[in-house]
Specification:
By secondary structure, the protein is of the alpha/beta class. The protein has a domain of 123 residues: Carbonic anhydrase (Beta-carbonic Anhydrase, Chain A), CATH 3.40.1050.10. Helices cover 42% and strands 16% of the residues. It has a 5-stranded mixed β-sheet. Helix 4 packs across helix 5. The longest helix has 18 residues. The chain starts with a helix and ends with a helix.
Amino acid sequence: MSNFNQLLDRNVNYTRGFSHGSLQIMPKLPTVVLTCVDARVDPAHFLGIEPGEVVVIRNLGGRVDDSVIESVAILDSLAKRFAGEEAAIEVAVIHHNDCGVSRFSNPQLQQALAQRIKREASEIQEMAIGDPHESASMDADRLNASPLLNPTVKATGYVYDVTTGSLEKAGSLATSNA
């Protein structure tokens, strides 16, 4: 049996108690969670997110790139259209410790990945995460500074600890050690 067939079997069980068919398209909380694709980092679990509450965007490293900015801009426009002009989107940029993207600072890996996806090695280096507190803060700042987003969109960086399950605001380690 393939891995996905096991998941399909679980879906059959899921549908037996399914009760979310009437959820609205707009989330209950005007919030976007951006985080990593790492299987250890599941915001539904560590934030207790219920279906229909928030929008979750996942990519390698939970990095803010042009597609994330465009997605948030579209979500903000939809929120304002359906919930009124006063609607404001909050974005939680969540990076984590022990991220696989931290390995992207290795020049040999940069070259291999760049060749594989037909990009420049410098673009792979830009994706690398050294300090997740710093990168989460930088990515939140990038969202907050984007001319595509309304000033009502507010992004904040956070760091999830894969060994303890805790979540803290980015920069709080550096602040508490100062």
